[in-house]
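INFO worker-7 received task bundle
INFO bundle size: 2
INFO processing item 0
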Amino acid sequence: MSPPAHPARLTAVLDAPLSRWLWLVKWLLAFPHYVVLCFLWVAFVGTSVVAFFAILLTGRYPRPLFDFGTGVLRWSWRVGYYAYGTLGTDRYPPFTLADVPDYPAHWDLAYPQKLSRGLVLVKWWLLAIPHYLILGFLLGDVQATWFAGGLIGLLTLCAGVALAATGHYPRGLFDLVVGLNRWVLRVAAYAALLTDVYPPFRLDQGGGEPEAAP
């Protein structure tokens, strides 16, 4: 039986061929994105505070703020996919919050019509603690999806070494790295109050999302 579908959907297509050596300078090429994302994340924190009180009072996440927050996470995933969160493409990420249909990495989240007023008080700090412990292992000290440390960073480095040595990204390694990033972004969406669906303790590997159970 397939696992239940999660409202946050992360998908990716491994580009081929990939440059053997471009990954060595992607830290420099992606620098403009790092600067923009720093400002976007500061704004995202501020809008999340506003959304907290809106949910507490109305049970709804204001749609413009929701679209902005999901856009910041989407942008972060694209940059991470290009750079040191995955190295899955050599195509330069677009500067936009919107989805780009022909880009090989996508992230989206279904808009919740209603959110729990009670959960908003505890889910982002108390209920998410077990996942924060896991994310500390996955990301290490660098808490950013576009430049990951920890296990994700180590596996991405292994992918870069494999590219340099063989010109190929090992498929099993790709599936694992994408699955770990999927876990990170599910937790990010929950902690940012964008969904009430608790992130599953499950590693869904591969570029496609698992289909819902019949």
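INFO item 0 finished
INFO processing item 1
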Amino acid sequence: MINCTLKPSPEPSNTEALAGIVVAALKGYGVEVDVVRAVDLNIAPGVETDMGKGDEWPGVHEKLLAAKILVIASPTWVGRPSSVAQRVLERMDAMISETDEDGRPVAYNRVAGVVVTGNEDGAHHVISEIDGALGDIGYTIPGQAWTYWHLGPGPGPNYLDEQRGHDWAASTGRAMASSLFHTAQALAAHPVPAPPS
């Protein structure tokens, strides 16, 4: 899971709190989960896997290649994914041209989903932007592989400060985890081959 909050550790992250529901559900299926808080890393701008000295993205890239399931978690700011989420997706762009030993894009046969928090109505837009990018990169996006929490348009309390809507977001998060896990199992049993030339 890549948490794209703007808040550095150890500041509490509303986005990580909601994503924790998905993480717990995945662990319930026996999935080993690693959480990366991208804002804590020096992730240089660019669209290459390694942008040189001091760039900490290559370590995240290694984790992506080791994982069969990816969750991108982002707050909503001005109706858009966070700037950190955009940076992560830009760096993942390099994966489009990377292939495995069978000629498949490296993201093939990996699944991905999205978690969104925010105080304005824009969660579905943020989900579609992130899902669209992940699909371009080569990830499989299962049906309903998302959850979100917000209290409608305008300013309001944060996820950690308000209990309204938590039950729905948690139930949807558990459904998301099920979708991700079972689709990953199906792809492991029946991998998508390299694209025809």
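INFO item 1 finished
INFO post-check item 1: The domain at 2-189 is CATH 3.40.50.360 (Rossmann fold).
INFO post-check item 1: Residues 28 and 177 are 9 Å apart (CA to CA).
INFO worker-7 idle
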